[in-house]
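Hi, here's the filled form for the chain we discussed.

Project: internal
Contact: R.S.
Residues: 119
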Amino acid sequence: QVQLVQSGGGLVQPGESLTLSCSFSGSDFYNDYLMSWYREAPGKTRELLATISPYNSSTYSDPAKGRFTVSRDNAKKSAYLQMSDLKPDDTADYYCFADGSLWSRGSSWGQGTRVTVAS
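And the returned structure, exactly as it came back:
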């Protein structure tokens, strides 16, 4: 069973950068999964930020364009979200998501990590 373990959240000041990590385990078929990052701000619905394919093709939603970069290391079975110029509105719980549905491998969520942007 696929497990995703996240790390890298915390408290940062506005304008600072932070990188979140998502480690994948429980399957030998990491390369069959799209990896995505979502966030859920207090009082708001969870929103998609970015998705990266096994071939490193990435897409971004508007909140992530220009300041966030998604990447993955297939050898390490890990995905990353680099965030720069963070703003208080970026305060949220961030989740990684592994989607293997295109290859009938199911999907899984990470446990979430809190990012707080405050001075």
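Let me know if anything looks off before we file it.
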